[in-house]
Description:
Layout: H1 2-16, H2 22-61, H3 102-110, H4 130-143, H5 147-170, H6 177-197, H7 203-227, H8 233-254, H9 257-273, H10 281-301, H11 305-326, H12 332-356, H13 367-384, H14 389-409, H15 417-438, H16 441-462, H17 465-488, H18 500-522, H19 527-555, H20 558-582, H21 587-603, H22 612-631, H23 636-666, H24 670-690, H25 693-696, H26 703-726, H27 743-759, H28 766-770, H29 772-796, H30 803-806, H31 808-832, H32 835-854, H33 863-882
Amino acid sequence: MYIVWAVAGLSLFGLIASGGQIFLGLALGAMLGLMWARLSSVSRDLKKTREQLDELIAHRVSAPVVAPRPVIAPSNAPPIPAAPPTVAVAPVDEAVRSTPSPVRAVSERASPLARISTAAPPFEPPKPGFVELAMARFKGWFTEGNVPVKIGMLVLFAGVAALLKYASDTGLLNLPIGLRVALVALAAIAALAFGWRQRDMRRVFALSLQGGAIGVLLITVFAAFRLYGLLPPMAAFGLLIVLVAGVGMLAILQDALALAVLGLIAGFAAPILVSTGSGSQVALFSYYALLNLAILGIAWKRSWRVLNLLGFVATFGIGTAWGVLKYQPALFAGTEPFLILNFFFYLVIPLLYLLRAPADRGRVIDGCLLFGNPLISLLLQAALLRWHGQPLAISALAAAVIYLAVAWRIRDRVGLGLLRDAWAVMAVAFATLAVPLALSASLTSSVFALEGAGLIWLGLRQQRWLSRWSGIALQLFAAIALVISVADGFSIGFGPWLDRGFVGLLLLAAGAFASSGFYVRLGSSNTSQKLASVLLYAWGLCCWLGASGVEIHRYLTINTGVAASTLLFALTGWVVAELARRIEQHVLGRALAFTVSLMFLLMLPLQFFWSSWNLLAVLVSAVLGWRTLRCLRDRPRAVLLAQWLWCWRWMLLVVFALRVLLVSKLQLSDSWAMLLTAAPMCIVLWLSLTRPLWIARPLPQYWPQLRAPLQYSVLIVLGIIWAGALFMDGDVSPLRYLPILNPIELLLLMVLFCVARWMGDAATPPVLRQRRPIVLGLLFMAFATSVTLRAVHQLAGVPWDDALGDSSLAQMSLTVVWSALGLLAWVWGSRRGQRVVWLAGAVTMAVVLAKLLLIDRSHLGNLFGIGSFIAYGLLCTVIGYLAPAPPKRADPTPLETADAS
C-alpha cells in the first residue's frame, strides 16, 4: 500500500502543480502519500495491540493466587519473616509464559547466596593506533627527559634568528652591527663553556647546551659573512673549520655521537655557505679530504656508523653535484687524485668499523659503504674519462687488483671472513667488468653467458651460493652486452638466422636453459633455488622467442610472418609440454606447463590475419595443440587454463574467418560484422549448455572444471557486444531496415535467449537463478527501448544523436512501449499470483508516470505529447479493468479498516 499511496500522491500533486512548481508538487505529493500510508498502518497495529492487551489482562486477573510455602532457613541464619501473598502480572510480550512462583521470589529474596554476583571481566582498552602513538611520542618529547633544555634550545634558535633579522630590518639597536654580532658570539661561547663544565654532573643538559651554542656560533659566522659582510670569505671559512674541529674534539672527548654529526654537517656545509663561485676545486676537495681523514681517525677510535654514512653521502654527493655543474676535461688532473683518495678512505673505513664494533653487538658489515663506494667511484671515474672503453678497462682491472690484495691481506684474520669474501667478489666483478670494456659487445655477451652457466654449475656442485649468484649476475650482464651489440648493428652476419644478434640471443637462451636444468638436476629443495630455476627458464624463453620474432619480422612478409609466428608458438608449446611431462614434483615443471597457456595466448592476436599460409599453419598448430593438451593431462591447473585458451582460439579463428569471407567480400555494414562476431560465441555458449562434450575435447574429463570459466568469459564478451549493439543506429546496408528482422536486433535477441537459457540451467549458481526474472526483465526493457528508438530513427528519419532525446515522437513511442510492457507485467502478475512480476509492472508504470511529469509534460503543445498522456491514461484504465488489485500474499493479511481509507 505504500507504493499505491505514494504513486497516488505523486500523480495528484504533479498534475495540479504547474510551471516551476512541478518538482515541489511531486515531492509534496509523494511525501503526503507515504505519510498517509504510514498513518494507516500504525492505526491498524495500535488497534490490534489494544485488543491483545485487553485479552491478556482479562486472562491474568482470572488466574488463581498461589500461597507461598514457608522457607526453611539454615540453623545459623536469622529467621526470615513471611512475605505476604502477591500476584505477579506478566508483561505484555510474555503473555504466553507461566507466572513465576512466589515461593521462588521469596527464597531468592531471603537467601544471601542469591545475591552473589560474579565480577565482570576486566576491560581491556584498545591498543593505540598510529596517530595516537605519534601524538604520544610528540607529547613525550616535550614532557620526558630534560624538557627545559629541549624547549630552551628551540626557543634560542628561533630567538637568535629573529633577533638578527629584526636588527637588520628595523635598526632599533643603536649599537653597530659588528658589536651586536660579537655579543651574540660571546654569549654562545659562554654557553658552550658552561655546558663543558656541566658535562659530568648533567650530561644530557651539557650536550644539548653545547650543541645549541655551537649552532648559534655557526649561524653567527654565516650571518657575519653573508648578511652583513663583516668577514671576508677566507676568514669565515677559517672560523668554520675551527668550529668544526672543535666539535669533533668535543664529540670524541665526551663520546657524543650527536655532536660529531652536528660538526660533520657543519663542516661539509661550510664551503657551500661561504662560496662565492670563484674558488678552486683543488682547495674544495683538499678541505673535504681533511674532513674524511678526520672521519677515518674517528672510525679508528669509535664505531659510529651514522658518521661514516654521512661522510660518504656528503663527499660523493657534493662531488657529483660539482662534477655536473663545473667539471671540464681540463680539470681532470686536479680531480682524479681526490676521487682515488676518497675511494681508499671508504675502502678502509668499513674495515675499521668492523674492527671497532662492540663484541656484544656482533660484527656487522656496513653494506652501504662496502658496495656503494666501488659503484659510485666507478661511475664517477667513467664520467671523468668520458666513458672511453680502454681507460675504463684499466681502471676496472686496477680496482680488481686492489680488492684482491686487501682480501688476501685479511685472509687469516678471525671474524673477517665475510668481508674477505665480499672483497673477493668485488675483485671478480671488476675483472669481469673489464672484459666488455676491452672487448666487443657481442664477444662479451657470449663469454658472459657461458661463464655464467659454468659458475652456476660449479656453485651447485660445491654448494656455494656466491658462485651461483655470480653466474646469475653474469647472465644479466650478458644480456646487457648483447643489447649494446645489437644497438651497434643487428644485421651484420652471414644472412638470415645467422647474424650476430640472433646467434647471441640463442647463446643467451642456451645458457639460461642450461642453468635452469642444472638447478633441476643438482639443486636442492630450497625455495630460492626453485625460484632461480624458473626465472632462468623464463629468461631463456624470452631470448628464444625474441630472437625468432625479430628474424620473422625482418625477413618475412606479413602473411608468411603470421603463419611462421603461429608455427613458432605451437612448436614451442609442444616442446615445453613434452618437457613438463617428464619433470615431476618441481616448480619448473609447473612453470613449463603454464608456458603452454602463454603460447596459446600469444596465438590469439594472430587470428586477426587470414591467408593461405595461415590456413596451413592453423592445421599444423591444431595437431600440435591437440598433442600439447594431451601431454598436460596430469597437471589439472595448467591444462584448464590451456584448454580454456584453446577454446577461445578456435572461437576467434571462426569469427575472423567469417569477417574476412563475408563482411569484407560482400561489403556489409558494421551491424553484420557485429552479428557475425557474436554468433560463434553464442553457439559455443549454447553447446556448453546442451552438448558440452562437443567442445570438451581433447580432455573431456576436465569439462566440469572448465565449464564455468568458459561460460563466464563468453558471457562477459557477449555482454560487452550486447551493450554496444544497444547504441547502434541499425544500418543494415545493403538491405533495408525492418524492425526486429535486422542483424542488430537479431543479435540482441540471440544473446538474450542465451542468457535466459544459462540462468535457467541447473549448473548455474542458485543465487543467479533466483534473480533470473529481475535480470531478464531489465535486459528486456533495455532491448525494447533500443528497438523503439532505432525504429523511430530508421522509419521517421529522426537523427541518431542528441536530437533523438528531444523528439516528441521518440518520447511518445517510449511512453507507449513502456506502458504496454508495464500493463502486461501488471496483469500477468495479478492473474498468475506472481507478486514479483506484478511489482515490476507497477514500478514500470510509476516510472512512466514520472517520465510524463518530468519530460513529456514539456511536449504537451504538440500531438505527440498529448498522445503520450492519452495512451498512458488508456493503458492505466485497462489495468484497472483487468487487474485492479495486487496478487495476494502467501500469508493472508488483515483487510484494511476504515482507519486506513
